[in-house]
Amino acid sequence: MPISDCDKMVDIATTLPGLKLKNPTILAAGILGETGASLENVAKAGAGAVVTKSIGIEPREGHGNPTFVETEHGIINAMGLPNPGIDNYKDEVESIIGTNIPVIGSIFGADAQEFEILAVEMEKFGVSALELNLSCPHAKGYGAILGHDKEKVLEITKVVKGAVKVPVYVKLSPNVSNIAEIACAVEDAEGDGIVAINTISAMAIDIDMALPILSNAIGGLSGPGIKPIGLRCIYEIKAETELPVIGVGGILSGNDAIEYIMAGASAVQIGSGVYYKGIGIFSKVCQQIQEFMDAHSYKTIKEMVGIAQKG
Amino acid sequence: MPKKDNLELPRIVKILDIVEENPDVKTIFFEDDFEAYPGQFVMVWIPSVDEVPMSVSYLGEKKGITVKNVGKATSSLCKLKPGDKIGIRGPHGTFFEATGDSLLVVAGGIGIAPLAPLMENAHNIGKQITLAFGAKSKSELLFINRLKGCSRELNISTDDGSLGFHGFVSDLVEDILKKQSFDEILCCGPEIMIKKIADLAKLNGIPLQASLERYMKCGVGICDSCAIDGFHVCIDGPVFSGKILSELADFGRFRRDACGRRVEL
Prior knowledge:
The complex is a heterodimer. Chain A is an alpha/beta fold. Chain A has a single domain (3-53, 85-195, 222-304), classed as Aldolase class I (TIM Barrel), CATH 3.20.20.70. Chain A is built from 12 helices and 16 strands. Chain A has helices spanning 3-8, 36-44, 86-94, 112-125, 144-147, 150-163, 179-188, 227-240, 254-263, 272-277, 281-295, 301-304, and strands at residues 14-16, 19-21, 25-27, 49-51, 68-71, 74-77, 103-107, 129-133, 168-171, 193-196, 200-202, 205-206, 211-212, 219-222, 245-248, 265-270. In chain A, strands 3-4-7-8-9-10-15-16 form an 8-stranded parallel barrel, surrounded by 7 helices. Residues 1-7 of chain A have low confidence and may be disordered. Chain B folds into 2 domains: 11-92, Beta Barrel (Elongation Factor Tu (Ef-tu), domain 3); 102-264, Rossmann fold (3-Layer(aba) Sandwich), CATH 3.40.50.80. In chain B, the strands form 4 sheets. Chain B has a 7-stranded mixed beta sheet, sandwiched between helices. Chain B has a 6-stranded antiparallel barrel with strand order 1-2-5-4-3-6. Chain B has helices at 72-79, 112-124, 144-148, 169-179, 191-203, 242-247, and strands at residues 11-22, 25-31, 41-46, 50-58, 62-68, 85-92, 102-108, 128-135, 153-158, 165-166, 184-188, 208-211, 227-228, 231-232, 239-241, 254-256, 262-264. By secondary structure, chain B is of the alpha/beta class. Chains A and B meet through helix 2, strand 5 and helix 10 of A and strand 4 of B.
């Protein structure tokens, strides 16, 4: 190979605590992760890692339909954390453990004790890392209600860290007045990283019926409209903590991913993008990242992480 | 999945007419200008009750869905009156395509809903249609006059023998296939029945298209509720080829409940 071509070679691999990713794209929690076969498809489609559906102690149906509605700039869902329960999930997750990419187990509990039980079980299944869902905005008693309270975040992260060896990431809600403060609680508890952002609390009303469309009235907004908010959150978190961050929110293209990386993300997650672009989005985003790096003479992802941070 | 022009949110439509097809089944007609192919479904929003996938049973200017009263959502639909409003999202999913000249259409009960418009369209372009229509009992049959008009041969089976062949429609189909061959089989009904028909189609070397049903939430391929071995009934189905069905380990055996648990059919 001519030397000039060698110079152009870019490496889109990225590393986070406990995770060596062949590329920085990760399937976000809640999308296509209820069954093992679907996770396998996402792996085959080129994702660098996959996050499972958020799994709780007991089987849970979630909210009644409608659970999904699209708006001009994003989609709103109020699935309500449906999942088969940790015991039934074993078969799903085990079918993809040990294949070519890391599997990150997402869990949700009502308190630190539930999180501890789930974390220990998920680790036994063989996941490479855990993601604590402290941010779902539409399930009573779970998710954001805990994640809005920095004391709870500190306690839950600490308990889980003390119970498992795999790295522990905490997924944060943007529906707080100071997200960096919550991220600092994760850092104080010796959590390994932050995932931000979860969906933004939102709703849609049908003016003909004069009713909220979602059965739960309130859901979480994701998709292109939330990207600027996600970026701002990553930027604020990176200004206050040393923790590695996985960026998520409205990524549909390589350029979107690079924005997140420049704000401080070491990797990105894609969720709603699967709706907008199909499962091919993972390889497409990777290709676009590669092209951008090529054109702008970046050789590694690391070079770009956080370079937009001022001061 | 490429992004569609229309946003995925319910269009509010007014119910024009309601036709009682049999004691448990009603067809709800409404005006909506979407274009759908036979086999596709819409997500029907019954405000304050539920949103459920329903096959489109009439595809003309007046659209129709044909509803069997089996649970909370469908019983609410069956109580609606002309002038009431419902929300419609879609149409979604794959559809039946009559590619051969001689078709064997196999329906079990309410499974006739997506097949009736397929038969009408195929009949209009000169296809030869043999129908095997099974139901538990005579009183569960529907659309009979509509189906007579577009089939060369109409075979009926009832589990209780109240009309036509006494037994399962799969046994009737087995008999039919001993006497005749077809370019393809198009099928919808209970999955156990579809599985039997799929086995017969394979045995006789006849291509099959069949429509499956699964619990659905988003209807757009992202929530994984309607997953079957990595396929999603909402976007990869509901109509699958016999070839794909033969590769699905869960087909004819397991479904997912609302929690995502794998449970026996």
